[in-house]
Amino acid sequence: MSWIAFGRINTKNYGLIVAPYEIPMPPAKTDYVEVPGRDGSLDMTEALGTVRYGDRVINITMYAVGSYRSRLFEFVNLLHGQRMYIVFDKDIGYTYNGRIDVNGITKQDGYCEISVTVTAEPYKLEENDTTVTVSGSGRAYLVNGKMPVVPTVKTTEETSLTFASNGQNITVTLSAGEHIIPQLYLASNDSKRVTVASFGTTTFSFKKGWL
């Protein structure tokens, strides 16, 4: 039986039957400008350097059967209006982050229909973080997914990092601890080679997101 986990709340634990559903692609935020005297329109979609995406709206229908009143009461009160990480059994390995709305409850003799809408962020996230670890001095090769991201850098000793950013070579020196370096930004489907100079252990970690 199909199931959906809203945070720690799994539909199968409430005896809910999930109807077939679709996880749609998020719409691209297009921007077309009509210019007098010009054939066609001017496409400004990537004026800021990349394509942006709108929310991913997922409509779900579930059914509760038998003696469902107490189960339904608890389920609805735990979910309605909440923002949660959501896992679909048909897309294992990824999580969706969205706001949950219970749109309607239709009660019938012996069963009940629940209509739910999830307004999720455009990118689904890999369940596990991507980590690259360098012991001592060496090189780290960071390969990103579709979602732009800035990796977190953890060091056990003072560490020097050298990498290219916007056509320039950048060197930063970090003390032991956890750091966010804006220049280490990874664009969509981007990659970076980072030279590490350290006597300790340096770990780069980030979450890959996909459409």
Question: Topology, pairings included?
Answer:
Layout lengths: L3 E3 L2 E2 L5 E3 L13 E3 L6 E3 L12 E10 L3 H11 L3 E6 L5 E15 L2 E10 L3 E3 L3 E6 L2 E6 L8 E4 L3 E7 L2 E7 L2 E4 L10 E8 L2 E6 L2 E2 L1
Antiparallel strand pairs: 1-2, 1-7, 3-6, 4-5, 6-9, 7-8, 8-9, 8-10, 10-19, 11-18, 12-17, 13-16, 13-18, 14-15, 14-17
List the main descriptive attributes of the protein structure presented here.
1 helix; nine-stranded antiparallel β-sheet; mainly beta; 211 residues
Q: What does this 3D model show about the protein?
A:
This protein is mostly beta strands and 211 residues long. The protein is 5% helix and 51% strand. The chain contains one helix and 19 strands. The chain has one helix at 69-79; strands at residues 4-6, 9-10, 16-18, 32-34, 41-43, 56-65, 83-88, 94-108, 111-120, 124-126, 130-135, 138-143, 152-155, 159-165, 168-174, 177-180, 191-198, 201-206, 209-210. The strands form four sheets. Strands 1, 2, 3, 6, 7, 8, 9, 10 and 19 form a nine-stranded antiparallel beta sheet that branches. A four-stranded antiparallel beta sheet has the order 11-18-13-16, with no helix packed on it. A hairpin with a 2-residue loop joins strand 8 and strand 9 (111-120). The model has no long low-confidence stretch (mean pLDDT 94).
